[in-house]
Every structure is written in structure tokens, then in C-alpha cells.
């Protein structure tokens, strides 16, 4: 049975105590963060963590991010905390930044996918912070979607994937940012960006200087990725996705052409972007890159419900949140990219 707790009008400590108790008992609780919804369990409880992998159908070597509510918890989970980590989190926590550090033995192998490192973040969401605090545990929480599907940005999305399969869903309304956290590996020098996300790389570089971008961020095939999650299919709706990239005017021409061609072949076509291009279905992503990020996963899920055969996505510039948006779109398409 799944309890759904409505917390749309703000933190309710009495109700959160119920959810925190479930976490302590090794149960699964989905909760909102500022990025996307997380599927949470006690990160130090092997059996509970194993259930996250089972529920999501997540490959066992794809490690989880541990969510904390106080900076001092970093020292309970990590062997070393370099100066760069302190400076970064001082500036950006709570917020959409995940840091990878050498792990302590208290963190079970299942949680880190067998890696000797641990990924940690403090979310900027009052419900999430209070839940973590009341549970008294670090909470392991990957995005609350079936593995490979678009991430959830509302409690409805979580219910679509997990109703009846997890103990609790806390409904805190739509998430503010809409793409997952930025993941940075601080065990390397210079640090390595493993996943672009809600905190733009430019902001990080202002604080700690040059960061290396892992080639997998742009879809390059790598044999032994530092972040195993990078090699798996991700964010994909059931429909085929095509991303059209290039200068704005050329992109518009190319999408117009593609929509016409696909419709002539009898396909039901959806467009996500800034205009409809005469497609069968259209989802307006927004007029700023922040809005595009916020609406991206919702748009992909919408297209599946509308039953389209093909989704054509308008590419955005790879600046600020645009780097995360393009990373998600390319992955969602399985790298089916059309250069205009
Ligand atoms: P998700 O929580 O579903 O958004 O995925 C978590 C992301 O963090 C995945 O891309 C993981 O590969 C990455 N991650 C988690 N722990 C580690 C770690 N110890 N080292 C590198 N990447 C990690
Ligand atoms: Mg995920």
C-alpha cells in the first residue's frame, strides 16, 4: 500500500514524522527536492537500499546519491574532505550540487555500486531537509522513476511509476528546477564534471577555477566510466526522440521539414520547444532556459500519454542550464541527433 501525503501548502512536521519513521524502518519514501522527486531509503541500510534498485529496475553498478541535512554528516560518510569541497558547499548548499568524495566503510557497497567513493548532496527543499533531519539518517535517493524513463517533477509522475510498489509518496507540488543535480568528482585534480545539472558549471568554475568535463557528458562512449550511471539509457519516453541542434533559424527550417515528412509517413508527431511547427501534439517548453529545464521531463511524459510515435525536440544553447538540458535531451534520444 502507498500512503500519499499532501504537503503542497508547506512543511507539516506531524505528517513528516510518519514518513521519517518509515525511513527508519527500512521502507521506501518518495519526496520532493528542488531538482526532481527522489525515491528515498536509509542509505546505511543495505536491505532498504536494495529495494530502491529493485523498485526502479536500476542496474546494481549505478550508485546512489546520499542526501543530508547538516554539513557535519559529510564527515560521517567521507574519509577525506578536501578544501575545494568545503568552499563549494559553503557557497552552494543547500542546492543542486552533488560532490563525490572517498567513502567511509559505514556506507554499504550496494549504495555506492561497489565504488570506493560516495556522492553527497544537501537538497534545497524544506520538506526534504526536514524528512532527513527527522529520520536521523542520510537518505539515498535516486530520481523516483522507473530506470531509463524521464525523471519525475511532480508527485503524479511518481505515482504513475510506483503507486502500490512503495510505502509513501510526499506530494510537495512541482519541483522548482526540473533537472537533476550537477555531479562533480572532487577525488580528481582538477575536479571532473560527471553530470551537468541544476547548478551551472560556470558558477562552479567561478569558485574553484577550471573543471574538466568528462567526455561522457557529451555522449562519448567510455569503457570504465567514473560514474557508471553515464553508460545507461536514460530519460527516454516510449516514443522515438529526435533532437535538432544548430543555429536557431536553421533548426526551425529543419523541424518544419521533419514534421511534414513524418506526418506524410503516417506518424503521430509531437514537438517540444518554442513553437508547434504544425505537429499533432505540442508542448511549449518556455521562453528562458530555466523554464525549459523545469518543463523538460513533464513534456516528455506528456508526449507518452498523448501516444505520439515521434517526439522532435528543439535544441538549446549549451550555456548555463542549457548544458544539462542538452545532455538530457541527447540521452533521451539515444543520441539520435540531427544537425541543422
Ligand atoms: P540519479 O540519482 O538517478 O539522478 O543518479 C545519480 C547519479 O550520480 C548517477 O549518474 C550516478 O552515476 C552518479 N553517482 C552517484 N554516486 C557516484 C559516485 N560515487 N561516483 C560517481 N558518480 C556517482
Ligand atoms: Mg535518475
Could you characterize the architecture of this molecule?
The protein is an alpha/beta fold. The protein is 34% helix and 19% strand. The protein has two domains: 3-183, DHBP synthase; 240-339, Threonylcarbamoyl-AMP synthase, C-terminal domain (Rossmann fold). The protein is built from eleven helices and 16 strands. Strands 1-8-2-3-7-4-6-5-9-10-11 form an eleven-stranded mixed sheet, sandwiched between helices. A five-stranded parallel sheet has the order 14-13-15-12-16, with helices on both faces. The termini are far apart. The mean pLDDT is 96. The site of magnesium ion has 3 residues, from loops.
List keywords for this structure.
single chain, 340 residues, alpha/beta, DHBP synthase, Rossmann fold, eleven-stranded mixed beta sheet, five-stranded parallel beta sheet, 11 helices, 16 strands, binds adenosine monophosphate, binds magnesium ion, ATP-binding, EC 2.7.7.87
Q: CATH topology of the largest domain, which one? A: DHBP synthase
Please report the first level of CATH classification, the CATH class of the largest domain.
Alpha Beta
The H/E string reads EHEEHEHHEHEHEHEEEHEEHEEHEHE
Uncertain residue segments: none
CATH-defined superfamily of the largest domain: DHBP synthase
- Associated small molecules: adenosine monophosphate, magnesium ion
The oligomeric status of these chains comes to single chain
Number of helices: 11
Number of strands: 16
**Architecture of the largest domain, CATH level 2?**
Alpha-Beta Complex
Shape descriptor: globular
Strand arrangement, largest sheet?
A: 1-8-2-3-7-4-6-5-9-10-11
Over all CA atoms, what is the radius of gyration?
20 Å
Strand fraction? 15-25%
Described by strand count, sense and barrel closure, the largest sheet is:
11 strands, mixed
Task: Tell me the helix content.
Answer: 25-40%
How would you classify the helix and strand content by structural class? alpha/beta
| End-to-end separation | 49 Å
Amino acid at each position: 500500500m502507498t500512503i500519499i501525503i499532501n504537503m503542497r501548502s508547506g512543511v507539516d512536521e506531524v505528517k513528516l514524522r510518519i514518513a521519517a519513521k518509515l525511513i527508519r524502518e527500512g521502507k521506501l519514501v518518495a519526496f520532493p527536492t528542488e531538482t526532481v522527486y527522489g525515491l528515498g531509503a536509509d542509505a546505511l541500510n543495505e536491505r532498504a537500499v536494495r529495494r530502491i534498485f529493485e523498485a526502479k529496475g536500476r542496474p546494481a553498478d549505478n550508485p546512489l546519491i546520499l542526501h543530508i541535512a547538516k554539513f557535519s554528516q559529510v564527515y560521517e560518510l567521507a574519509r577525506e574532505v578536501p578544501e575545494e569541497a568545503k568552499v563549494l558547499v559553503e557557497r552552494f548548499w543547500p542546492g543542486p550540487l552533488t560532490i563525490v568524495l572517498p567513502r567511509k566503510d559505514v556506507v554499504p557497497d550496494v549504495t555506492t555500486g561497489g565504488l570506493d567513493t560516495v556522492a553527497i548532496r544537501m537538497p534545497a527543499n524544506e520538506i526534504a531537509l526536514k524528512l532527513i533531519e527527522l529520520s536521523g539518517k542520510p537518505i539515498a535517493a535516486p530520481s523516483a522513476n522507473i530506470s531509463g524513463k524521464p525523471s519525475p517533477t511532480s508527485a503524479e509522475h511518481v505515482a504513475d511509476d510506483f503507486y502500490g510498489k512503495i510505502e509513501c509518496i510526499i506530494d510537495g507540488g512541482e519541483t522548482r528546477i526540473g533537472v537533476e543535480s550537477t555531479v562533480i568528482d572532487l577525488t580528481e585534480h582538477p575536479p571532473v564534471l560527471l553530470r551537468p545539472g541544476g547548478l551551472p558549471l560556470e558558477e562552479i568554475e567561478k569558485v574553484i577555477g577550471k573543471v574538466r568535463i568528462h567526455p561522457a557528458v557529451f555522449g562519448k562512449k567510455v569503457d570504465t566510466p567514473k560514474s557508471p550511471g553515464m553508460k545507461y539509457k536514460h530519460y527516454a519516453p516510449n516514443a522515438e526522440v529526435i533532437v535538432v541542434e544548430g543555429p536557431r533559424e536553421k533548426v526551425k527550417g529543419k523541424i518544419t521539414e521533419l514534421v511534414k515528412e513524418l506526418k506524410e509517413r503516417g506518424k503521430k508527431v509531437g514537438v517540444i520547444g518554442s513553437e508547434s511547427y504544425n505537429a499533432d501534439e505540442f508542448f511549449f517548453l518556455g521562453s528562458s532556459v530555466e523554464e525549459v529545464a523545469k518543463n523538460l521531463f513533464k513534456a516528455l511524459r506528456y508526449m507518452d500519454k498523448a501516444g505520439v510515435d515521434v517526439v522532435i525536440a528543439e535544441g538549446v544553447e549549451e550555456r548555463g542550464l542549457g548544458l544539462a538540458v542538452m545532455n538530457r535531451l541527447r540521452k533521451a534520444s539515444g543520441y539520435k541527433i540531427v544537425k541543422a
